[in-house]
Amino acid sequence: MIVRVLIFALLASLAETSAAIASDPHTVLENSMRAAGGAALLRGIHSIEYTAVGERQMVEQSERPSGPYFIDHFRLHQVNDFAADRARLDQSDEAYAADVWWTQQLEPSKVSVVRNGDVTAVVTGGKWAYGGRGYLQDNQEQFALSPERVLQTADAASDLRELPDRMLHGVRHHVLAFHWKGAPCTLAISADTGLPWQITYTRPYPYETFLNAWGDVTTEITYNAWSLEPCGISYPREWTYRRIGLPDRAISIVALHINPELDASALTIPRDIVAAHPHPAAVNDVALGAGGEGGPREIAPGVTQYPGGWNVTFVKEPRGTIVIEAPWSTGYTQRALDAARKAYGAPVIGVVTTSDSWPHIAGVRQAVADGIPVYALDLNRPILDRLLRAPHAMLPDDLQRRPRTPHFIFVSAPLTLGTGENRLTIYPYRTATAERQMMVYFPGHRLLYTSDLFAQNG
């Protein structure tokens, strides 16, 4: 009797599993395309234009890593020309991402970005300049994973398969898995409506300063507020993004045009811009000092500042060299550490990281990989631990290849390092706007390094 009961339970379990997984995942896609307006209409979309309002949670540089976050409010106009592989984004920002929001930001900051194939350009005040590759990845994701394209992308994947159904918000969803450009993707489709609900994918962002530090970044986009458009296609008017488990941005589409007439001049990058930048540098490959004003300079005997997009400072001590800041990326910090060793012909005996902003802490992984003690604010332990745990399997760095236990010295009160004229004291601010920052004072030279709290700004 016991054997019969066990066999019955096993058969019931198998039946339940087979009912939850369709025999052919393409059937799920066909039903979803039909719910969205039909495969013919979806495949007939060669361009799309929309205007949206939205907000972005600035998690990478807010006062606290756990929030609440600084917010950027923006309005954007997006044109995607799928047929010609080109796009244009016109965006205005009116809060944290605006030019001078902390004083008097009476007008929004405006910028336009154009993509032609693998090249991007920024248009500001009618002047064109090379735009790097940060927008390129974001726009390529739209071309493949936006509501009007994601079903076709999944259908074309060679490894498409169905996973067990999943309950999301009390509603059963079919779940499909596939790869796109090497990125593992899962697509949740409502079992009730047949419409896509959420696309999740993981990939690195080697050209994006804020995301590069986190290695294999997982993004979730939820599509809701579905609307039946005049052309017969159902389309979600609201997109909500989450990245590395944190809120990112949300947009609400207020105007939508399918297959609009296109302005070729607005979508075409000048030839000189295309010719001048065929191979942009990844964040890890940025040259030491890039973005700085002038080369390194000794601001006091044995104290050398290296200006750059984020400054670093080398301090000569009797036992070796102390480096202030490990910014931008692991590659950038590696070049800074090498330069510090060369500058004074001594090993690096410590790295001081003074802020929790992502570009400031991005290179801490390299300091840990090199076995260098890291001095950091006690309040920043959670975000630093999280940074060290972040997977970098897709584009491995030194810490991924050779895992190492970090040697952190967490600063909770003024701490003096070194001796003699170059001794320095690290002070936590503990202020409203610099709760997660520290300053460094050199009493022998009457020099003060102020991290992010104060900056010379014209």
Number of helices: 12
Strand content: 35-45%
Rg over alpha carbons: 26 Å
In percent, how helical is the residue content? 10-25%
Distance between the termini: 86 Å
* Coarse morphology: elongated
Adjacency order of strands in the biggest sheet: 6-5-4-3-2-1-13-12-11-10-9-8-7
Helix/strand-derived category reads alpha+beta
Strand tally:
24
Specify the biggest β-sheet.
Answer: 13 strands, antiparallel
Contiguous uncertain segments of 5+ residues: 5-19
Q: What value does the average pLDDT take?
A: 92
Question: How would you describe what is shown here?
Answer:
By secondary structure, this protein is of the alpha+beta class. The chain has twelve helices and 24 strands. The protein has helices at residues 2-20, 25-35, 39-43, 134-145, 150-156, 209-212, 271-276, 330-344, 358-361, 364-369, 381-389, 398-401; strands spanning 47-58, 70-81, 86-93, 109-116, 119-124, 127-130, 161-168, 171-180, 183-190, 196-203, 217-228, 234-243, 246-258, 297-300, 303-306, 312-317, 320-324, 348-352, 374-377, 408-411, 415-417, 424-428, 438-442, 447-449. The strands form three sheets. The chain has a 13-stranded antiparallel β-sheet with strand order 6-5-4-3-2-1-13-12-11-10-9-8-7. Strands 14-15-16-17-18-19-20 form a seven-stranded mixed β-sheet. A four-stranded antiparallel β-sheet has the order 21-22-23-24, with no helix packed on it. Helix 2 (25-35) runs antiparallel to helix 5. The chain is elongated. The termini are far apart. The model is unreliable at 5-19 (pLDDT under 50).
